[in-house]
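Methods — Computational structure assignment.
A single polypeptide chain was analysed. Its primary sequence is given first, followed by the predicted tertiary structure written as structure tokens.
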Amino acid sequence: MGQYVDAAVGGRSPAGIKRGCGGRRGGFAALRPARLTGLLLRSAPGSGKFVLCRSDSAAGLQSFRDLLSDALFSARFAAKTARMTKPVSLSAPLLALLLWRLGEVAEACSCAPAHPQQAYCTADVVIRAKVTGQKEVLTGSDTYGNPIKKIQYDIKQLKMFKGPSQEISAIFTAPTSAVCGVALESDGKSEYLVTGKLESDGTVHVTLCDFIVPWNSLTPAQRKGFDVRYETGCGCRIVRCSSVPCSVSDPVECLWTDWITESTVQGPQAQHYTCIKRNDNSCAWYRGAALPKNDFMDIEDP
């Protein structure tokens, strides 16, 4: 099911036009090319207007808006009224240009911020490593026959905090940041904390959505967390507060308020605290060098 997007202002459409993104009532305005993942042109029923629809997996609409001029949008897409009775058509060159540019922005990468503890708990692999080399490799073909390219980073594993029994000698990522590829220094000197996904073939794949940072940028509490403490809190849930008011709805939740109090997700809670269970099975933020006893930070005082 698609979602209507007002291409000029990035907002939602009136209900009358929004129906155009439903698969049943809105017709395709053009065939979707291979690289057009999620962004579709459809004709809104009863409006005679082409609208821009987005599937749940689409990203990069802001980039799309930047790619074409305001004049182009105002001429063909910018309509904030609920109904349009006079049909508006797209010329063939304009439609071709639009689809061509859409193919680029459809591959944009976006991720929700994650507390380091969340990154540990959700990852298949967590290691400390040096990158010793890199090369581009082909890993097969997609459904359209296009070659799938990845960057292979050869690594020297220094310590495994979580993962398989065998040592990891390489990690793989997409070739560009537009498709969530990760860029690492391969000088053999820089050390990284790397979280990633273990594929069925035993390889490790990493993206920009994973927690990958220089080892020397971690605080002592974060290093201790990845070593032993974060694992003790994987039965808890960290809830990010992105706007006020916000609250927890379950005793096993910890409210992460760094964005509200510090205007960054790399605030005190991310740098120094772990969300772990108390004796009564509720969860709370904890900071300390020793294993927790009764020294918990109140949830109202992050």
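Note: The longest strand covers residues 125-141.
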